[in-house]
Amino acid sequence: MPIDWRPCGLLSGRAVHPYAVLILNQPVNRNALDAVIQHATFLVCADAGADRLRTYEASLKNGTSLRSPDVIIGDLDSLTAQTADYYQARGVEIVRQPDQDSTDFTKGLKWIREAARQSLGDGELDVIVLGGLGGRVDQAFSQIHHLYMAGRDEQLLRGRVYLLSEQSLSFVLDPGLNVIHIEPGYFEQNVGIIPVRGQATITLKGFEWDVQNWPTEFGSQMSTSNHIRSEMLEVSFQGAPPLFTLELAAKFQASHRR
User: Whose CA is closest to 68, among 227, 84, 254?
Assistant: First the structure.
């Protein structure tokens, strides 16, 4: 059976599956966070992601109230004392996990996984990660690494994980026929199918440049800056799962004036 993806629902308040929002210590795309925060089942801050959330809250107009995070979790080496005091006064749980063998990203995913077990009967819960790919290169690759790691470990995730960054929504494709449903107003035309984990042979339908059994890998050829040409994009592959990335519509991009 085809594997359906409906990313527009995440941005429209009509998500197909319940989801949690995980905020990393990266510059927050405030326009995208506006679209996803109120419908999240859980709101989790990884360490100084709480500082990012507090700054976001201060930017809201007309004194709009913002939900508090369900938890702030991590080794807490970056969280400022002022932000810790601010959220503690609002009854937010702050969990320090000094273990240096796991990242704050991983700690946040594990908390969400356990919360889903307890409150959703171990049902699937997607995760939208607010991160950034426009800063340090090592941190950008770390976020992509965690997308792949989460998809292979049910201790971290039972559902899908999306990276919502300054200009894009990205996720790892599943084996089989992936069908990405597109609605007007949520994404620009630009997409990429990136062979992050290694060589793949891809078949595309619904794009400006459709291909069939087309080999792709770093150092050879890649389908970047391809264009959406259908409401249903079809991607299948053999080999390593590629990363699929969509450019957000201008109103959801970090550079758009609020």
Answer: 84
pTM, rounded to two decimals = 0.95
Q: Which residues, at least 6 apart from 70, have a Cβ–Cβ distance to it below 8 Å?
A: 42, 43, 44, 92, 93, 115
Q: What's the pLDDT tens digit per position in 87-106?
A: 999 999 999 998 877 899 99
Helices H / strands E in the chain, number of each: 6, 15
Q: Each residue of 115-165: pLDDT tens digit?
A: 999 988 877 899 999 987 777 888 889 899 999 999 887 877 889 999 999
Structure tokens at 47: 């360490």
**Could you identify the residue written with the tokens 């859980």?**
42
Ramachandran region, residue 175 (left: φ > 0; alpha: ψ -120 to 50; beta: rest): beta
Range list for CATH 3.40.50.10240 in the chain: 13-167
Please name which of 92, 100, 90, 82 lies closest in space to residue 44, comparing C-alpha atoms: 92
- The CA distance from 251 to 208, in Å, is 24
Domain at 13-167, CATH from 1.10.150.240, 3.40.50.10240, 1.10.287.3510, 1.10.3470.10: 3.40.50.10240
Residue with tokens 């990884």: 46
Closest by alpha carbon to 150, among 27, 14, 241? 241
Q: What CATH number was assigned to the domain covering residues 173-249? A: 2.60.120.320
